[in-house]
Design goal:
Layout: H1 16-30, E1 32-38, H2 43-52, E2 54-60, E3 66-72, H3 77-84
Antiparallel strand pairs: 1-3, 2-3
């Protein structure tokens, strides 16, 4: 992991957005990217996706299914794979 020094003001919050961007990029570099299709009735699965992954794209098909591309953190990968049977994609 590359280290960076990001100055942040506790008084004004200046620099906080930059810090969060750096953290997001670092986490995304470690994540597995997967594509999956969810049935329209799988609201529980969709909620899990939004709670535990970063949704990179979401497209609704005419039949109501959702096509999703998500970045899954390594700490969630085994749960994701068990739940959705998905495999990482480049």
């Amino acid at each position: 992991i590359q280290r960076a020094t990001i100055p942040v003001s506790a008084l004004t919050g200046e620099g906080l957005e930059t810090l969060l961007d750096v953290i997001d990029r670092a986490l995304a570099e470690q994540a597995n990217v997967a594509e999956l299709t969810l049935a329209p009735e799988d609201g529980e699965g969709l909620a899990w996706i939004y709670a535990h992954t970063q949704v990179l794209s979401r497209e609704a098909r005419s039949d109501g299914h959702l096509e999703l591309r998500v970045a899954v953190p390594p700490t969630q990968w085994s749960r994701f794979e068990r739940r959705f049977g998905a495999h990482p994609r480049s």
